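Ticket #4471: structure export looks truncated?
Reporter: QA, pipeline team
Priority: medium

Steps to reproduce: submit the single chain below to the structure queue and open the exported record.
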Amino acid sequence: MRSDPAVAQELTEIGFSGAPLPDRAEAILHTLRLLVPYDGAWMALNDPRRGSNSHLSLADSDLDSATLEHFCGPVMARDMELTGANRDGPPMGPSDLPYRLEEVLTWAECLLPAGYVDGLGMSLFARGRHVGFLTVLFEDGTPRSPKARNWLWRLAPAIAEAIDPMSSLVAAARLVQGATSGVVLRHDRRVEPLPGLASDGLLSSDSQVMDVARAVLSTGQVCGSFLWPLGGRHAPAGHARVTALSSTEDVRGILTGLVVVSPPGDLRELTPRELEVLGLLVEGCSNAEIAQILVVAQRTVAAHVEHILAKLKADSRTLAAVRAEREGLYVPRCPWPNGE
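Actual output as written to the record:
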């Protein structure tokens, strides 16, 4: 039998494999079976959309549909709260509970009728965050050895990292050159810090920046970026680049994507006002409409447009708008407080 350090290394390799999350979870269960032979197993993600103790199935081994349905339902969530299985700690089995198995509904109504009389379960935490749950089940009633418990407990961090949906987003954030801050956007509109990057007031859950980022992701784009004026609409402190990246398909129901702030890059010598006008060109506004929005004369707008075309080496408004979007020179139109 292999040593647990070797298994931990294999689990880490699974986590970095780039395979879809359900495939990684299946590979983890297969690896664990070689170390702790079980008769049934289940691995799931924490699903905060339905409550702190609810789960979304990732992979299972030899479990029927009724058992899987029960595991994802409210009775299982209640029993996890009752027994403390939702807290960060060593694997728990029936012998650890201050109740008879018949008093725990998950055992009485689901597992015992299915032929399972013993098991070990534990919540999975990655960097202090509850990411999922793992249970292994046995058809014989012999209490599991301390060695089996210790193996699972020592491997728990590697398992949690391997299935953490945040891991793929962290890897994606590294592709944004010069990223200084970032957050993960959850399905329920909350944001969470992105490990390895600083926090930024621009990325609070109710900020205008996040409203624009959500709009970008809602169009189905895998990646989109825009410029944001710092210090007010006239960008007295310059611009920041905001990049929104969609999450992978297998976790999109839980994590919508990530939003990262980085330096603006090459602005093609466009002034803050010209960038603002360019943003309105991208949105398809006419000179008259731009003049009305910015409260300036149409001849002023025409002069800005002429300068923009020259700096972007574009011979038409349409080509300028295309190049602006391609180069990430879009400044979205947003209401500013106090007429800033």
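Status: closed, not a bug. The export was complete when the record was re-opened. Leaving a note from the reviewer for reference: The first helix runs from residue 4 to 15.
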